[in-house]
Hints:
The protein is α+β, with helices and mostly antiparallel strands. Helices cover 27% and strands 18% of the residues. The protein has one domain.
Amino acid sequence: MFACLAALTLTLLAAPVAPMPxxxxxxxxxxxxxxxxxxxxxxxxGNRIAPVDxxxxxxxxxxxxxxxxxxxxxxxxxxxxxxxxxxLRALMTDPNSGVDHPTHWRLATLLAAVAHHFPDATxxxxxxxxxxxxxxDRSNHxxxxxxxxxxxxxxxxxLFELLRASFADIGVGYYPNGTFVHLDVRDRxxxxxxxSGANETPCxxxxxxxxxxxxxxxxxxxxxxxxxxxxRA
Length: 233
C-alpha cells in the first residue's frame, strides 16, 4: 500500500488550485462533505505553496501541548514512512479521551508541504483527532482528516489564504476571533468563516466570501456576528 502512496506523493504535494464555491454556494463547515464548487480562485503562483520533491522534504516540526516533535515523513527515496505515520497518529491523539486514530495520509503530505514552505517555522497543532466532537460526529476531526493549527510567525489570514490557494479537495476554516486555522482533506474544496472564539458555539458567516473580500471578517466580533444572524451549530 505504501508503495502506491509514494507514487502519488509528489502530485499531492504539488496539488492544483482547488475550485472554490461562489458567493451563492451553501455555507460549509468542518462537518460538511458535499460542497459544490462553482468558481476558481485566481491567485498568483508566488502566493501558493510550490511543488515539493518528497525525497527532499524537510522533517515536520510540530508543537503539540508544549512539546516539540520532529517527524521525517519520507525516506530518502521519497516514500512515506509507516513509522512516521504512526508517530503522527500518536501526536494527534485526543488529549481528553486518550484515544488515537490514524491520520489520513494525504493530510500528512499537506502538512509536509506547509512545513517545507516555512522552513524556519514551527507548526503548532492546536487540535487533531477528536474521539467525540463537541458539535457533530460527522466532523472531519473524528476521522483523522483534520487539524487546527497555527504557524509560527505567520498571520492566520495569510495562512488561510495560502492554504486555500495551494491545494485541491480541502476544507479551510478561518476564525477571525480565534487563534488557529482549520485544514482538512475531503472530496471537494470549500471554505468558511467562523466568528466564534475559544469555548464558544460556532457562528458561521452566511456571506463568507463577501466578508473576506470586504474586510468585514476582521472587523466583526462574536457578538456582532450573532446579531447579524450567523448560522450557529
